[in-house]
Specification:
Number of domains: 1
InterPro entries: DUF2969 (IPR021351)
Largest sheet: 5 strands, antiparallel
Shape: elongated
Distance between the termini: 22 Å
Organism: Streptococcus gordonii (strain Challis / ATCC 35105 / BCRC 15272 / CH1 / DL1 / V288)
Protein name: Branched-chain amino acid aminotransferase
Radius of gyration: 14 Å
């Protein structure tokens, strides 16, 4: 028997992201009601924020989103 592909809707919302003690413009990725990650715009790059600290930097928003989704899927 084959499994059906399950469609998952991921939303990218504009938000203020806290990095250290400062707030930056950024995005939060949401699946259902669960926030799976945050991305902040820092110095012309997109940083993945984990526990209030920048974890990884990307030149394009798409790459940062892709990395967050991969990390979320591997953690399941």
């Amino acid at each position: 028997m084959s499994k059906k592909d399950k469609k998952i809707e991921i939303q990218i919302n504009d938000s203020k992201v806290k990095v250290g003690a400062d707030l930056f413009d950024g995005y939060s990725l949401v699946i259902g009601k669960k926030v799976i990650g945050e991305i902040a715009e820092l110095d012309g790059q997109y940083a993945i924020i984990k526990n209030g600290n920048a974890d990884a930097f990307y030149k394009k928003l798409e790459k940062a989103v892709e990395n967050l989704i991969e990390t979320y899927n591997l953690g399941k």
